[in-house]
């Protein structure tokens, strides 16, 4: 009697069979905790900046350089860790990046002078820049296609939690004991996350694409057991062909238009977001508020980010990624402009709340679309390169904001509003929708 041949599945079929369960929930918590720690490291300088300027008598240009330093490090980190993780795997970057950003973040609290603080913030950024593309790639590769978009936005929501904690700590700590304890305390969660991340397995999708089918099947079975959806023992996974790839493939068909538009979107959203939020405490102080009162309002604005994320998570599976991203970016621009021209405090705060709501929802939709736009071979390279545009814009935004604010606050905010709107139009022009589509594995593979 003939023996039945083993079932042969694509990786997409296997991960859909494994489904969404306990393993992905734990992975989201682990990735999310790292994201929250990263948000604290990126945003806390803006909360601490008024106190740092006061202590060291910094000029506007020096304050802008301090805000820029972490983004220069993030640019190097995004390109380095993104490319490395497509070559040697996701796990090394997944473990080390959070250690680098938290370790140097902690050392920042003990900076003896301005120059040392700038250097340590740049080194902190080198870790943060790598965490972002690597985390999204590994999480996306463990998700079934039906839930992928929504859960990628949920992961981005942890950024808002980190921002909320950073704002709350700044509110409680800086006016009372200064900025150094804020930097030290904010680094501790990342050091804890480092120890937990060591136990997360390598992406089975990466292993499969690199011809390591047996290891990929073993990890898939581990995930399946944890989710209560065991796989047949005799399954075989289709191993896709693995041509040589490079960063240049991002600019070859069929990715040319996608890459150009995504780089424009990442640059524009970052210019708008960091241009406003780096200077937000100073903007409130400029309106006549005390440091303590400004932190209270920033805490409220940060709370508005959470429903922004959750609404985007709902809409990316209803309207699709492109439409949600485009609409949220354009709305971010509209409310940033209203924030610029508001004449009363209630209108000023209301516009800022809606600006925060839509801007962070747009970030969530962008982080859902980008890893889906590239194949496994180029996923972290594509994420790293696109997020590198964020670092360039993030490095420019504090300095540009400092210069423009010296001329006119409405002028500065109008420029950043325009960056949001142009990014929204680019999002609506993206060549294809990724909602409900399987992830591609090799360069040139179309959905």
In short:
With 447 residues, the chain is mostly helical. It is 77% helix and 1% strand.
CATH topology: Growth Hormone, Chain: A
| Backbone structural class | mainly alpha
Looking at CATH, the homologous superfamily is MFS general substrate transporter like domains
Tell me the number of helical segments per DSSP (H or I, 4 or more residues long).
17
Strand order of the largest sheet: 1-2
Instruction: Report the helical percentage.
Output: over 70%
Q: What is the string of SSEs from the N terminus onward? A: EHHHHHHHHHEHHHHHHHH
| Contiguous uncertain segments of 5+ residues | 1-5
Overall mean pLDDT score? Answer: 83
The figure for the number of domains is 1
Shape: globular
Classify the beta-strand content into a percent band.
Answer: under 5%
Subcellular location: Cell membrane
Organism: Thermoflexus hugenholtzii JAD2
Membrane topology: Multi-pass membrane protein
GO molecular function: transmembrane transporter activity
How would you describe this protein?
By secondary structure, this protein is mainly alpha-helical. The chain has one domain (9-234, 245-428): MFS general substrate transporter like domains (Growth Hormone, Chain: A, Up-down Bundle), CATH 1.20.1250.20. The protein contains 17 helices and 2 strands. The chain has a two-stranded parallel ribbon with strand order 1-2. Helix 3 (60-88) packs antiparallel against helix 4, helix 6 (145-177) packs across helix 15 (345-373) and helix 10 (256-277) packs antiparallel against helix 17. The protein is globular and about 70 Å long. Residues 27-435 form the Major facilitator superfamily (MFS) profile domain. It is a multi-pass membrane protein. Its main location: membrane. The chain crosses the membrane at residues 27-49, 61-81, 93-112, 118-139, 151-173, 179-196, 260-277, 297-316, 325-345, 351-370, 411-430.
């Amino acid at each position: 009697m003939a023996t039945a041949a083993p079932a042969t599945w694509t990786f997409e079929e296997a991960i859909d069979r494994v489904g969404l369960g306990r393993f992905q929930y734990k992975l989201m918590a682990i990735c999310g905790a790292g994201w929250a720690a990263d948000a604290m490291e990126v945003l806390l300088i803006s909360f601490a900046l008024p106190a740092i300027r006061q202590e060291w008598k910094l000029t506007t240009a020096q304050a802008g350089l301090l805000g820029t330093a972490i983004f220069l490090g993030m640019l190097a980190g995004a390109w380095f860790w993104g490319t490395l993780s497509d070559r040697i795997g996701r796990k090394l970057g997944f473990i080390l990046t959070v250690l680098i950003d938290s370790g140097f973040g902690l050392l920042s609290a003990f900076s003896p002078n301005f120059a040392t603080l700038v250097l340590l913030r740049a080194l902190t950024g080198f870790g943060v820049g790598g965490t972002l593309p690597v985390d999204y790639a590994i999480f996306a590769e463990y998700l079934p296609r039906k839930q992928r978009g929504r859960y990628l936005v949920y992961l981005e929501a942890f950024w808002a939690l980190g921002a909320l904690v950073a704002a709350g700590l700044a509110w409680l700590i800086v006016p009372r004991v200064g900025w150094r304890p804020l930097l030290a305390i904010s680094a501790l969660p990342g050091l804890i996350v480092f120890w937990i991340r060591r136990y997360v397995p390598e992406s089975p999708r990466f292993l499969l694409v690199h011809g390591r089918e047996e290891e990929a099947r073993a990890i898939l079975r581990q995930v399946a057991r944890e989710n209560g959806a065991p796989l047949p023992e005799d399954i075989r996974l289709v191993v896709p062909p693995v041509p040589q790839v490079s960063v240049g493939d991002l600019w070859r068909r069929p990715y040319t238009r996608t890459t150009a538009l995504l780089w424009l979107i990442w640059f524009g959203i970052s210019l708008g977001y960091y241009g406003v939020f780096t200077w937000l405490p100073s903007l409130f102080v400029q309106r006549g508020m005390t440091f303590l009162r400004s932190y209270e309002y920033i805490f409220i604005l940060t709370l508005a980010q959470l429903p922004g994320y959750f609404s985007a998570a709902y809409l990316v599976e209803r309207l699709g990624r492109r439409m949600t991203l485009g609409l949220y970016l354009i709305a971010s621009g509209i409310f940033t402009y209203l924030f610029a021209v508001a004449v009363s405090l209630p209108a000023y705060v209301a516009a800022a709340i809606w600006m925060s709501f839509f801007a962070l929802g747009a970030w969530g939709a962008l982080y859902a679309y980008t890893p889906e736009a590239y194949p496994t071979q180029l996923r972290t390279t594509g994420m790293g390169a696109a997020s590198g545009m964020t670092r360039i814009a993030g490095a420019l935004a504090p300095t540009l904001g400092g210069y423009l604010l010296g001329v006119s606050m409405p002028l500065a905010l109008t420029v950043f509003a325009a960056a949001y709107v142009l990014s929204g139009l680019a999002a609506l022009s993206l060549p294809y929708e990724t909602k409900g589509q399987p992830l591609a594995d090799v360069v040139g593979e179309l959905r």
